Amino acid sequence: MSASKIAVIGASGHTGRFVVDELRRRGIEPIAVTRERVGDLSDAAKLDGALVGAAAVINCAGPFVDSARAVIEAALRAGIHYLDVTAEQRSALDAFEAFDAPARAANVAIVPVAAFYGGLGDLLTSAAIGDWASADEATIAIALDRWWPTQGTRRTGARNTVARLVLRDGKLEAQETPRATAVWNFGDSFGAQDVVELPFTETILLARHLRLSSIRNFINEAPLNDLRDPATGPPQAADAMGRSAQRFLVEAVVRREDLERRATASGRDIYAVTAPLVVEAVQRIVGGEVLQRGVRALGSLVDARGFLDALVARYSSLEVSYT
User: Fold this and answer.
1) Does the reported pTM lie above 0.90?
2) Neighbouring C-beta atoms of residue 2, cutoff 10 Å
């Protein structure tokens, strides 16, 4: 793996910089692909040229409804693996629907959503379900102490206007309005929080590879108020790694009849933690540990608990528990 190069689209963006740094920490040479180099991704020749010499490409350039298709098509032309960090349900669903057969034919893996939103919940739920063949319900509850949105997050929010999808009775359907609210007890770290049902890409991923009747996603209200406030500034570095002081906790609860299993992760900075998630994934794929091809959810490609435990072993700020 040390000889392989990994292209990073959007390398100069907030999350892209974390990904580039993480690759270098692991001794992997990044190919930094910026807007100055390839423009708006509409020029296929420029994009193809930017991927020369890469074993895989990580797409960090949102909104992904605008970027994912072009970069996936370029990855297929180059015969290399593709991963992204989207939180957009539409772009993830499009990848599954449009590119599975071409990816299998090209013998490459396409992994949408190897990120905090989507990827982490997918891994936690997959770890929690364990040896169960199916479950009645999976619930992912997210707590943030605050949310300093990046410019990319704000652009994506303005662009992402399609109805969010939920899984009910084993079928994806548009979320009803108004969104359901509840109170979720996040334990000692965050306590009881007002939460709102807000489906992210976990719904798309889990519906693809686990036998679940329903999936529910909740997030606490406080960070959404930060996100809605145009005066809220972007993240500011609070340590030598460039991470902000933001704290998060994600709980995945899986229920089958009267039985319940839970997996929980906590740490710092939702943008920064995306980097070890996606880089761990690309390292395993390019290194040959993951042999499956086509469009795949991260939780279906790896042993979820082993993957999470490997991240915890590398990063003292990330904690994961199972009950």
Assistant:
1) yes
2) 8
Question: Closest Cα partner for 78 from 102, 98, 62, 113?
Answer: 102
Q: Pairing mode, if any, of strands 181-185 and 171-174?
A: unpaired
- Asked if residue 46 is part of any domain, the answer here is yes
Q: What is the mean pLDDT of the chain?
A: 96
Q: How many domains does the chain have?
A: 2
Give residues with Cβ within 8 angstroms of 310, minimum separation 6: 280
User: What is the spatial distance between Cα 318 and Cα 273, in angstroms, rounded to a whole number?
Assistant: 8
- How is residue 115 annotated by DSSP? S
Cβ-Cβ contacts under 8 Å for 109 (sequence gap 6 or more)? 81, 82, 103, 285, 290, 292, 293, 294, 296, 301
101/240 same-domain check: no
**DSSP, res 288:** T
Q: Average pLDDT of 32-45?
A: 92
Cα 251 from Cα 230, distance rounded (Å):
29
- The range of the structural domain enclosing residue 12 comes to 5-115+274-305
Gap between the Cα atoms of 9 and 23, Å rounded: 13
pLDDT of 178 strictly over 90: no
Q: How many CB atoms lie within 10 A of CB 255?
A: 18
At residue 2, does pLDDT exceed 90?
no
- Let me know: does 139 contact 202? Beta carbons within 8 Å: no
Residue 3 confidence (pLDDT): 61
